[in-house]
UniProtKB/TrEMBL annotation:
InterPro entries: PAP2/HPO (IPR000326), PAP2/HPO_sf (IPR036938). SMART domains: acidPPc (SM00014). GO terms for molecular function: sphingosine-1-phosphate phosphatase activity. The keyword Transport does not apply. Keywords: Membrane, Transmembrane, Transmembrane helix. It comes from the Bacteria. Residues 93-210 form the Phosphatidic acid phosphatase type 2/haloperoxidase domain. The chain crosses the membrane at residues 12-32, 67-86, 93-112, 141-160, 167-189, 195-216, 228-247, 253-273. This is Phosphoesterase.
Length: 275
């Protein structure tokens, strides 16, 4: 599998950055044409769309609350932890990609300072699932950045060679990303454009992670068995945090993430002990 990932990454061209840049430009031009480049304009223009999506998705609160957790780096990385053993090249791209995504989120949220829906709209007019968020850090959606960073790395890492299979694979990966991203609207935490711009930023982060891992050997230590104790410790800490989440919220996705982490922990310890 590692060879497949390496070969797939080697085929990629920097022209892939063009598509997200075109999308961002189109969004900016749309907001400009609607006089919505201000914070008030940005929130007002999305009110009807936000309420519509929120009420439709909010009819399935348990599903939305589980889906939205996948945008948490702990959950998504736990689900992918087994790739450290079988396809470390994926993690070589994930790590720099997620660092870039963290940078995007940390810089852009305070820069735009857009209030959350709960800070703008009457909270009785829409559905809130989980904790009510009312700060001024709505744009872009951090969960959307994270999930699209992860999906971009996986999208190109595991892409089939046959065109028909590749189209199906891209469609499935994109659909999963949109479902997770728009769950942020479903739980009442973000506006639609928050998750769209977050998804675009995440896609760019994933591409940067891929090209960084391809051109620079910064994270090749991931596949070195001598470094497995680092991951063993990380798995143990992650498992403890997940157990805490299960005690507090008892969501199915937490059990699934914990199961993946325990399998990876067992395999990693077994391989390291035989080293």
């Amino acid at each position: 599998m590692n060879t497949l990932v390496t070969n797939n990454y080697a085929r990629l061209s920097s022209i892939l950055f063009l598509f997200p840049l075109i999308l961002l430009t189109a969004i900016i031009l749309f907001l400009y044409s609607q006089g919505a480049l201000s914070v008030d304009g940005y929130t007002h223009i999305q009110k009807d769309c936000f309420l519509l999506i929120n009420h439709r998705l909010g009819q399935y609160p348990t599903l939305q609350f589980n889906l939205t957790q996948i945008g948490d780096a702990l959950i998504s990385l736990s689900l992918l932890s087994i790739f450290i053993i079988y396809a470390p090249r994926i993690w070589e791209a994930l790590l720099p990609g997620l660092l870039v995504s963290l940078l995007f989120s940390s810089l852009l949220k305070p820069l735009f300072a857009v209030p959350r829906p709960a800070a703008v709209f009457d909270t009785t007019s829409f559905i809130i699932v989980g904790k009510k968020l009312s700060g001024f850090n709505s744009t872009p959606s951090g969960h959307s950045i994270t999930i699209f960073t992860v999906l971009a790395v996986l999208l190109f890492a595991l892409a089939p060679q046959k065109l028909n299979n590749k189209i199906i694979w891209f469609f499935l990966a994109g659909s999963i990303g949109l479902l997770v991203a728009f769950s942020r609207v479903g739980v009442g935490a973000h506006y639609p454009l928050d998750v769209i711009t977050g998804g675009i930023a995440g896609y760019i982060s994933g591409l940067i992670g891929i090209f960084t891992s391809r051109n620079y050997k910064i994270f090749t230590w991931v596949g070195n068995k001598k470094c497995y104790p680092v991951f063993i410790l990380a798995f143990l800490i992650g498992g403890a945090v997940l157990i805490g989440k299960i005690i507090n919220e008892n969501l199915i996705i937490f059990y699934l993430a914990l199961a993946c982490l325990l399998v990876s922990l067992y395999k990693t310890i077994t391989i390291y002990a035989k080293k």
